[in-house]
Amino acid sequence: MRHRLATLPRRSAVDLRQMRLAGRVVAEMHEAIRGAAQPGVTTAALDLIGREVLAKRSATSNFLGYHGFPAVICASVNDEVVHGIPGPRTLQDGDLLSIDCGAIVNGWHGDAAFSMAIGTATAATQRLIDTADKALAAAIRAMVPGGHLGDIGAAIEEIVSAAGYGSPRDYCGHGIGTAMHEEPDVENRGRRGKGPALEQGVVLAIEPMLIAGGSDDVRELDDDWTVVTGDGSLAAHVEHTVLVGPDGPEILTI
Ligand code: MG
Ligand code: MG
Q1: Is the pLDDT of residue 1 over 50?
Q2: What is the C-alpha separation between 102 and 29, in angstroms, rounded?
Q3: How close is the Cα of 130 to the center of ligand 2, in Å?
Q4: Which pairing describes strands 182-186 and 235-237: parallel, antiparallel, or unpaired?
Q5: What's the pLDDT tens digit per position in 158-215?
Q6: Cα 218 to averaged position of ligand 2 atoms, centre (Å)
Q7: Which of the ligands is closest to the CA of residue 29?
Q8: Do 207 and 237 touch, CB atoms closer than 8 A?
């Protein structure tokens, strides 16, 4: 999908109530998984924790079954950028883990991701994670009435490239509502003032993806899901579902 929309869809107050509920479930999944992710734990065990939160909140997964995806979380480790499949892999001290997951409540979707170090982080790992968080925070600050879609990508691109990192071109954020992936694409690069206007009620999933080696190059593994860096360097992935509120951004997945 490219920017075919002249104007972006705006959500009603009633719809936003549901999206906040979905977002809160995603935040709870994150909190539970973050607390459990440590050396010796498998990524399959983290998926199970995600499933338990969904069940407890009577929410369903927008990841499970998505084009056949077999889990409720993506767990991407070290050089894996996005779409890692949870399984028997055991987390090791110093690993960089990115967790992406979502939830559906009454037909409305939430989607968010975080990156963390397992056990002790090297300075290089921590710097990559901190830069990803900084890029996401800057992009969220661009979600104001009167802004433009290009402001978001520009904010991310400036921080990522200033830090010397790369970012894959074929993966990006998206509109979100009654489906997880809606128009428009929210690219991790762009130009300020370009693209459709950001108006109150617009909701977007913003998701910077960083490649430590500085290249934009990625490839997909034979499992047809896992995307890894082309140069084998570390990757980080963070995401929030964000509303353009009347006075500024509101993070729904928090
Ligand atoms: Mg996601
Ligand atoms: Mg997403």
Answers
A1: no
A2: 9
A3: 20
A4: unpaired
A5: 999 999 999 999 999 999 999 999 999 999 999 999 999 999 999 999 999 999 999 9
A6: 18
A7: 1
A8: yes
The HSE-up count of residue 104 (CA atoms within 13 Å, CB side) is: 14
CA 145 – ligand 1 centroid, Å: 24
- Centre of ligand 2 to C-alpha 206, Å, is 7
Kindly report the pTM of this predicted structure: 0.97
Tell me what the mean pLDDT of segment 46-73 comes to.
Answer: 98
Q: Whole-angstrom Cα distance, residue 81 to residue 75? A: 9
Minimum-distance ligand to the CA of 181? 2
CA 199/CA 55 separation, integer angstroms:
34
Give the separation between CA 203 and CA 35, rounded to whole angstroms. Answer: 28
Residue 92 pLDDT > 60: yes
The mean per-residue pLDDT over the stretch 23-37 comes to 98
Cα-flanking dihedrals φ and ψ of residue 220, to 5°?
-100, 135
Q: Ligand 2 mean position to 63 CA, how many Å?
A: 10
For residue 128, the CA-to-ligand 2 centroid distance in Å is: 20
Give residue 2's pLDDT.
52
Q: Domains plus CATH for the chain?
A: 13-251 (3.90.230.10)
Give me ligand 2 centre to Cα 144, in Å: 20
